[in-house]
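ERR on first pass: missing label on line 2. Operator R.T. fixed the label and resubmitted. Corrected input:
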Amino acid sequence: EAGVAQSPRYKIIEKRQSVAFWCNPISGHATLYWYQQILGQGPKLLIQFQNNGVVDDSQLPKDRFSAERLKGVDSTLKIQPAKLEDSAVYLCASSLTIGTGSGNTIYFGEGSWLTVV
Amino acid sequence: AQKITQTQPGMFVQEKEAVTLDCTYDTSDPSYGLFWYKQPSSGEMIFLIYQGSYDQQNATEGRYSLNFQKARKSANLVISASQLGDSAMYFCAMREGREYGNKLVFGAGTILRVKS
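pass 2 clean. output:
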């Protein structure tokens, strides 16, 4: 079974430029997440989708970050304009659905490493 | 208050020995799940083990076991027979129920180094 796919793996941009990350979740997974992980810290949830609807985006800096999951499958996270403090790993993850049971384990992709200079 | 606390920034263990990584959590939700993930230097977050709040027995997965003490709100990860490939960052995480946001919240992590 294929895992969560992300691209690009690495991106270096200048501040005030824009960047987009793509994610394809595990087949059949209704819930998709974007996490931001700053070096030396644990991941922080940016946005959570259930199918193509947003469940939680309370920690998404909406003045510069946007995300969509138009067809309920793959998703795109965009940053515009980027700031130096956006340098981080952006992790996409998916689970079968929302819930606390073991069947809803969240599986992560390899991450997209962003450096803003 | 922190939802997940990992008090050990770094740990060393000798190859083939066992090591315990600490995790305490804070929640009012009676229904929650606890997870441990491993993150090697490549950056991927690898799922290791899950413990549900209603599970009567401690979870085990191969060399990984979870020492779940519900009254103390602790969920320590035990790695037996450590291997060099176990060197990585380890994160404890908790997922509460729908009424509490249903988010997976992570601790700050513990770096484990296995010595040969």
